[in-house]
Prior knowledge:
Blueprint: E1 2-4, E2 20-22, H1 35-41, H2 51-62, H3 68-93, H4 100-126, H5 132-156, H6 164-180, H7 189-219, H8 231-237, E3 239-241, E4 252-256, E5 264-266, E6 276-280, H9 283-291, H10 294-301
Helix pairs in contact: 2-4, 3-4, 3-5, 4-5, 4-6, 5-7, 6-7, 7-8
Amino acid sequence: MTLKTAARPAPGLPSGMTLSIAVGEPVSSGHLESASSVLATLPSVGARISPAKLTEMLEALLACDLDAAARLRILHAWKTPLLDACEHLGEETGARTGGPGSLFEGRLYRLMFRNLAAAIEQAADRQRAPDADLNAWAVRNLFHFFQHQIRHAARLQIPLPAGSWRDLHALSVRLVVSTRYLRAPEGSREAGLDVAHQGVKSIELRYKEVLLLGLIAQVFVTAIRDHLQGLRTWAVETRLENPFGLTGQRGLWLVDLADDAPPCECTGPLSPDFRGWVLFPPEDFVRMLDSARLSEAFARDRGVCPSTC
């Protein structure tokens, strides 16, 4: 699955940006399974199944040729049982790493994200959501499950799976582009434009929440829950700006869309070759990070700033 946003103009996206980023690693089977064979093996919703069986089910779902609407209906039905299983695994695991519980919990969050991404990609290719409510649920939960991934990794002090942040950046751009060009439902063109505008604002807000959470997780590794209360307010006050006109400025927070990483504070001058967003968090959020010795945390956990800085 590949995201290509250069095929049509993308107003509001970083100038000159061309994305062709694969979403997630290839499925292990190497081929698509038929939808009927996968559906025939799905357990009944509400049945008690092991985390291993849940993982197997989501892997099979990811590897089959279901259409977007059918995939989303299955994910919608299994969301609550999956979260219940993950909560139980989290209680058993605590802060221990390497055990089967911690591995299954992280894998389930990742697989749910990738299945949601697959359905959203299918819908975006058609420029029409399979169902407005179902599509809104998918977008909302795409970011929701990525937040679960961040919290899980922070709790166990382990990195996110390779490609996680790159997938998020690519999907966020894809969602903005596809929402801007979403075909209007029955009704006036103005109504369709208003729906698209509101959809873009909602996507950007959820994306900013995840970006800020990624910064929080780098600093407050063992106390991430204590700093989530103001996340929505901080996201509302945060700006994501096109880098045009900011070349040469120092001390910017950068979101490199091709980088598999959360935002990075770049102390050097912004390169004219940078492709991504410039993040402007509110001052009280930055002060909170500074109070936790942000520069020392970056030096310890991330090393040098990316080469684009």
